Fold this protein.
Amino acid sequence: MFNAILVDQPGSAAKLVRLGEAELPEASVSVDVAWSTINYKDGLALTGRAPILRKFPIVPGIDLAGVVTASTHPEWAPGDRVVLNGAGLGESSWGGLAQRARVDGNWLIRVPEAFDLRQAMGIGTAGYTAMLCVLALERQGVTPAAGEVLVTGASGGVGSIAIAVLAKLGYSITASTGKLEQGEYLRNLGAGAVIDRAELSQPGKPLQKERWAAVVDSVGSHTLVNACAQTRYRGVVAACGLAQGMDFPATMAPFILRAVTLCGVESVMAPKPLRQQAWTRLASDLDPRKLETMTTGIGLGEAIGAAERILDGQVRGRIVVDVNG
Ligand code: NDP
């Protein structure tokens, strides 16, 4: 028997339960999970505030890090340290908020030597998505010499890791946050300037003063619209999130008058070579000491409460869940 968070059916509350090995799904790789995490999407799933869960009963949790215990997949053997982000984990298949999992080996990534399993979940989907955003900017030719980069939702998971990575790469960063009291935290991660997110969150003019060479946005809605309207000629905006809203009440002006590029970033079904590239780059471009300053550990029984807190915007950085704690 082992501990797991379980949601029985649509609308029912998540609860901590004991399950048996026989309840694990059929899949190629069995994993002893060590750590999982609470991303914004886990908050939505655990509280039922959005229809993230699509199969019942289900163990939620869109991320896991652990050690392979059995495998019929040619790439994986017992003892391998693995991480899995998205790919339906904790949405349409058994997720990471349990001491055991059985998953499709095709989606697994080997944990880079640079990280232990807790650090791998300190990164989690939020950090891996932050790196996907950085890779999207690079694919469009953005370099540190291009100028200032805006990071919105700065004190959140995606935002914090984006700042730490961009800083290590030599970028000059402005952090937009609703938690101005976290200014020192954001500067220690590598932000050179911190602005109040209220400057970006209201409807604005279609074209505004050109400020940003590039943007990493995890907020959406008016914030993303204003970020595009303030992006410099031929600048690039990577959009991955909707913490303010799913809407995008924009005009064409930044795109057709300033040649701004808007890149969508999606982590769940990202192909394996891109996932691998993101994790390889995280190993070289994320300072583990900065990761530690943004990581808070909790036990499995505390995961449900943490889900409420992340949706209420009360979480700084990343939460990691010790599924054995
Ligand atoms: P977090 O909750 O950790 O961070 C979100 C941050 O956004 C908050 O910390 C807060 O930062 C800011 N924020 C919250 N509410 C509002 C609001 N009403 N208006 C403006 N800013 C707000 O979440 P994650 O970092 O885990 O995820 C961020 C977003 O990215 C989510 O929408 C998530 O669904 C999305 N996402 C998408 C992925 C994809 O595949 N496309 C993958 C991963 C995440 P502050 O207080 O500093 O302003």
